[in-house]
Amino acid sequence: MEPQVADRPEKSRYEILAEAKAVADTRGDGTETAGFAEYHLSEGEIAFVHTEIDPRFGGRGLGGLLARGALDDARARGLRVLPYCPFVRGWIGKHPEYADLVPEARRARFGL
Length: 112
Hints:
Blueprint: E1 4-8, E2 13-19, E3 31-42, E4 45-53, H1 62-76, E5 80-83, H2 86-94
Parallel strand pairs: 4-5
Antiparallel strand pairs: 1-2, 2-3, 3-4
């Protein structure tokens, strides 16, 4: 199964779901939450504040998949992105095709 990114608005975060590790199938569908990107949503803006990948899933590129999925969803929803989270900010820096999501007047504040 390919990892999937899902918005969990009730938790104010995007989660990346990956194939469950043996007994850890907490969702009952063969997947478990491998990581998340927390956000605050307000007035057409989404502020990413913290991203975390479970160490058991490290080194598989899930952080990048999570960032891409969350940012693609923000774009589809017409949201402006405020990357306070160092991981999301760094990911955007490495993928300049996403810099347009950050309001131009605020890019310098984020080093973009």
